[in-house]
Amino acid sequence: MNRSSDIVVAGGGPAGCCAALGLQQLGYRVLLLATPRPWPSCEGFSARALQGLRQAGLPSAVACASAASPRCATWNGTSNDANSEHLVLREALDQALLSDVSSAGVEIVAGQLGSIHAPEGGGCELRVRLARGGNTALACKFLIDARGRAATGGGNRLRGPESVSLVQVRQGRPGAGSSYLCSLPSGWAWLARTDGGRLFLQLTISAEDGALPPRKDLDSWFNDLLQPNQDLLDRIAGTSPTGPVFARGSTSILRDELVTGAVLRVGDAAMAVDPLSGNGVFQALSSALAAPAVVNTLLQYPDDRPVAEAFYRQRVEHLFLRFARTGRDFYRLEQRWPQEPFWRQRRDWPDDEPSHSDIPPRFLGLQAGTVLDGDRIRAAAVAVTSDQPLGVWHVAGIRLAPLLENLPDTTEARRQALLDRIKQTVSEPQKAQLVRAWLQRYGLL
Q: Which range has the worst mean pLDDT, 100-109, 271-280, 287-296, 399-408?
């Protein structure tokens, strides 16, 4: 049976559900296409990833995360156990995400996106493969592609060294949850132990041509790769595999075409980061939280399409490069195997630009930018700083450009002008204090 909706979201992961909720809240009729993952997995969430889920209105998903558990890391021969992460079983997370969006009134169809046709009159005509069998047709004004790395097309703006993550699920005795990260000559391994005694062992290695053995040899080859790290072997001692090793692509990818006609990519379908960063869910939510305002601008304010596209592209690319450079710096810390292909390929990608600016925080000037203004994207003057290259539009709801334009040249005259402008334009003492603190941070007061 054919049906229609304002928005169709393809993909029921964190990014898809976040975007679906945001668009539903803007008054659109939203239909979500989702199917469960065909393999078991566990993920480590940071505190800010959980905060992103809360911000998106996904409380059941947040509740799936365990309490913060210790994470030990052995890198370049040195061990550190100062960090922690929240372990999440992906099957439970996916069910909770769908429960949250269903409770908000989003229609859910169990199926996968097949083909997309974009008629000249606008919108999308979709062919969907239903989980129960058969196909159906959907029509919508706009499509959100949140299918993760499985999303097709779009081209690659940037692509990192080819990587694959091999996963083995093991069973041991119940105990306290924990995780362990370590480097190996061939790559790096992450081991997550859940309270119930299930172990998820992930080994990330090069996926260059010829790097992987035939499927029949994968399990024994996987075990051979673990041998150089005795600590890792000790941690899995007394456990046994519950199934064969399976592979998942983990190459860093920034898509070139983020917005095409009536289709917008979010999450890993827009950019997929190296799992070493540990920020996959955070970056997926970052794009998905902005998606509703971008889509609303494209549909309701079509003249502002270039502004909305620029806003989305700049932010996705900025976040991708930040994570890529942070990962590069971490790869460079491992210096024991400099000639091994895995490490040699990753220590110089994506570039030599610093991941964090060493320049003290300072104001660089005002420039034309793009900003998120409620439910739409628009052009506005922003304050560019040494640590905020995309610019800051407001602090505590107070726009910065009117305060900072046409300031006197001398330090004392500039200071007095800023204090006078704050007094004239900011009536609430708490907001005025926050604005003054921001100006002081960037050397303006």
A: 271-280
Instruction: Give the dihedral sign, CA 239/242/246/248.
Output: negative
3-65+88-157+252-323 adopts what CATH topology?
FAD/NAD(P)-binding domain (3.50.50)
Q: How many C-beta atoms surround the C-beta of residue 291 within 10 A?
A: 27
Domain ranges of the chain: 3-65+88-157+252-323, 363-441
Q: What HEC string does 59-87 produce? A: HHHHHCCCCCEEEEEEECCEEEEEEEEEE
Q: CA-based Rg of the chain, rounded to a whole angstrom?
A: 24
Contacts of 215 (CB under 8 A, 6+ apart): none
304: left (phi over 0), alpha (psi -120 to 50) or beta: alpha
Buried b (16+ CB within 10 A) or exposed e, 432-441: bebbbebbee
The CB density around residue 132, as the number of other CB atoms within 10 Å, is: 6
By mean pLDDT, which of 270-279, 290-299, 370-379 is the weakest?
A: 270-279
Q: In this structure, how many other beta carbons lie within 10 angstroms of the beta carbon of residue 73?
A: 18
Per-residue pLDDT of 10-59, as tens digits, reads 999 999 999 999 999 999 999 999 998 888 899 999 998 999 999 999 99
How confident is residue 157, by pLDDT bands cut at 50, 70 and 90? very high
Average pLDDT over residues 123-152: 94
> In the 8-state DSSP scheme, what is residue 302?
G
Give the Cα separation of 216 and 295 in Å (integer).
46
DSSP element (H, E) containing 337: none
pTM of the entire structure? 0.93
Closest by Cα among 389, 12, 340, 236 to 21: 12
Least confident of 58-72, 355-369, 419-433: 355-369
Q: How far apart are CA 4 and CA 127, in angstroms?
A: 12
